[in-house]
Amino acid sequence: xxxxxxxxxxxxxxxxxxxxxxxxxxxxxxxxxxxxxxxxxxxxxxxxxxxxxxxxxxxxxxxxxxxxxxxxxxxxxxxxxxxxxxxxxxxxxxxxxxxxxxxxxxxxxxxxxxxxxxxxxxxxxxxxxxxxxxxxxxxxxxxxxxxxxxxx
Length: 152
What we know:
The protein is of the alpha+beta class. Helices cover 13% and strands 31% of the residues. The chain has a 5-stranded antiparallel β-sheet, with no helix packed on it. Strands 5-2-10 form a 3-stranded mixed β-sheet, with no helix packed on it.
């Protein structure tokens, strides 16, 4: 009799614990979009945009001819958006290349044929970019990001 009473209790406990932890695994994500412009307001096409979170995978996108972008999580399922929380923003000008080109070691390949980047190189690296944003739950995460032109 004692064994039959403890078994249902055990199953109820397991079910309650599983429902409390939930089935949603992975970090919380929110949709992110925005516009990249020079400080003078000129929209920039073909800018590779990356958001680097403190606690999860990065997100990335590329601007269209109006400077607008939408981010995708850099994961197998390429979910739309970025991790909730503070993000470092990295920008790379792919206009001289007209495409993203990566070498076998992950380095960017220069196919510029003498064309110069339009934005300052300080935006290329997580350690030097001055740009950061906060991605929030339940809010419109549409960022207007202005950047300095490349030095002449």
